[in-house]
Every structure is written in C-alpha cells, then in structure tokens.
Design the sequence.
C-alpha cells in the first residue's frame, strides 16, 4: 500500500501528520512525502520544517494520495505543474483525498466537478468555484474522492479509511495505539457549537490574514 | 512566549505536532524545535523527516518545554547530555510537559520524583521506575509538570494549557480554528473501552517490537 502525502510551503502540519500517524500503521503501508523539489518545506507559521524526500518526477503512482491544507494552498490553485501531477497521480489511485483546504487544490485540478466535498468550515462555499457540492460533514466520500473538514478532521479521515481498507479490528487497534480518545477541555470545535463571538473572532483573524497576504488565503 | 519542542530520532510525529498546532496559535507564541544537532530527525517508522533548527547549546531557557514520545525515548533515558539539557531548561520554565513516553524521559531526568504523572496506557507502570505516581488520566498536572497520555492526547494537553495560559475565548477560538470536533468512526481509543482482544493485539505488537529492538521500547 503506497500512500503519498503532498508537501508544500505554508502547509498546516497537523493536516498531514494526523492522517499520516493513522495510515502509517496500516499493515504493509509505505509512506512517501512528495513535493516539487527535494529538501524541506516550511509550515504556515514558519516554525517547522518538514522533509520532502521524493519529487513529482520520481512518484508517478499511488494507492492513496493525500493533499493537506494550509495557507499555501492558494498558490497551488494556479500552480499548473502541481495540479497536473495531482491529476496524473489521481488516475492511478484507489483513493484520492484531502484535508482542510487541500480540497480546494483537488478542485482546482478539476477533480471535484459535480462531486460532494468538504473543507475547513470557513472556506466551505469556495468549493462551488470548482463545481463541487459543499457538504458540512467531518469526512465526505464521493466515489474514490475523500475530503475531510478542517485540520484535526484528518485524524477521523485516517481512521475512516483504515476501517474501509483494513477492517474494524485494525482500525480499533490503531485508535488504541495512538490513544485517540479525545477529551478536549472546551467544546467549540465546530461553528455549530461555538458561541457566535468565537466564530466571528476566527473569521476576523482569517480575514485579516487574507488582507495582509492576499495571495495566501 | 517561548515554546520549545525537543526533537529526537524515532520520535512519534503526532506527539509533537498535535500540541504544536494548538500552542503555535497562542498570542505571541514563538516555537523552536530543538535537538542534539542541527539537521533532521526521522520518525519512528522512518517515513518522515522533521527539521531541527536549534541545538541544546543555542537554547538555554523556555517558557514551555514539551518532550514528545516515541520509540526513541528509550535511548534518551540514558542520554546524559539530553537529560542535563532538560534539567537545565526545566529550571527556567513556567510549564515542563511531555506527551506519551516523553514522560519517561522527564522521569529519567529526575523531574517526576513523588509527582503524579501519566504516559501511554501500555507504559503506565514504567513511571514507578522513576519514583512517579502513575495516573490514568488524559492530562495530569502536578506543580509545573504537565504530562499527557499517548500520542493524540497531546492535542487535549495543548488546549488545556491554552485554556490555563490564555483563557477560555482563546482556547475556544483555537479549537474552532483547527476544527477539533472529534468524530472517530470507531470507539476504542482507551483500554477501558476497547475490546480485550484489541488491547491484547496492541500489547502483542509492542512486545514483538521490544523483542526485535530491545533498546527501543
């Protein structure tokens, strides 16, 4: 089982590392972190380097492709080389997936036309720009395309895929192995449950970042 | 707010990236990934490189220190240079923390004597080797020491610390920003809820790995 994660500058690390931590535990899994060039990428806040060990040219097929999100996805929406690589890999996959705003990249590659899909709650309506049908669910599956909601939803996506590909016992053993028994001390993880003032605060921060860095919404 | 994550070979990536994704969103946060040498470390499964941008010699103080877990912690338990650096940093922190088997490193450094602490559920009794009092809770606080349970518990630890340091509105906005609204498709994240056969399967896999790599429990 060859699982490929696409890495790029200004990625949100947890978008990739959540599903990686789950899917790397699938029996027979091999994971490649692939990018435009060998070396490193920096996360959205610049604090962390993640290693790119293989390039687009070196990886031409995958069983599972995962495109994470982050502020860097805006630039990818018009990066024809990256989009063509995604289209080429998609022709070989069992599952083509995204986490958070990674779905906007799948959309820009033309893979979401007429399909149900999700993304970070604050960007959900942007899916319509690519002909997708926005769905406010944690993990959305349409054919072989799987899209997860924002950032931490990638862990639930990973387990959902583990359940599908390897069965309940394997999925439960992975969940127990990583002690994914969530107990957040606050209860505002969805705009449906957060107070309106909290939703407004997050939207205002995203809007301020959009104004400061218009290329990197 | 200077937040330092210790990186080392054979780390479990999510142990670090979960709390990093939360704590990096605290107002005024600056995050450093620190290790024995500049360059990279590889995760437990060798699939992923994480960048070490600063060394022990360069970082001599922190507001928050986070020691993640992973199979590599076994070697750290007798790595006097790493343990002395942890002791030195601990003298400067507001909070010294661990995720998963990172607490066994804090223990080896002598920081858990007589303290309540936790770790990955399968390693909980090992805390007694270091004079700590094992507690089966998601996040345990004793004085300025905070220890989190296995792997994914680091996200709950991060939010717990955000709540304490920055208040409820900030913690809720971070939770909403990373859409941490867990919905796992299976319910076996704790040995209290997993079927006995699943618990046995995970313990058997860990035991096999211990036999294959006795230095790296």
Sequence:
């Amino acid at each position: 089982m060859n699982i490929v994660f696409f890495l790029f500058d200004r990625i949100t690390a947890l978008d990739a590392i959540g599903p990686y931590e789950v899917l790397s535990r699938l029996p027979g899994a091999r994971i490649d972190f692939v990018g435009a060039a060998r070396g490193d990428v920096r996360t959205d806040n610049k604090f962390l380097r993640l290693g790119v060990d293989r390039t687009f040219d070196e990886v031409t097929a995958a069983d599972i492709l995962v495109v994470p999100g982050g502020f860097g996805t805006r630039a990818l929406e018009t990066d024809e080389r990256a989009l063509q690589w995604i289209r080429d890999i998609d022709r070989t996959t069992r599952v083509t997936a995204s986490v958070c705003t990674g779905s906007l990249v799948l959309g820009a590659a033309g893979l979401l036309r007429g399909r149900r899909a999700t993304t970070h709650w604050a960007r959900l309506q942007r899916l319509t720009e690519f002909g997708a049908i926005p769905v406010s669910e944690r993990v959305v599956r349409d054919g072989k395309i799987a899209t997860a909601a924002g950032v931490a939803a990638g862990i639930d996506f990973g387990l959902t895929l583990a359940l599908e590909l390897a069965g309940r016992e394997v999925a439960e053993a992975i969940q127990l192995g990583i002690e994914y028994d969530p107990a957040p001390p606050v209860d505002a993880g969805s705009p449906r449950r957060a107070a309106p003032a909290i939703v407004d605060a997050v939207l205002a921060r995203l809007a301020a970042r959009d104004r400061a860095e218009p290329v990197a919404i």
Observations:
- The radius of gyration of chain B is 16 Å.
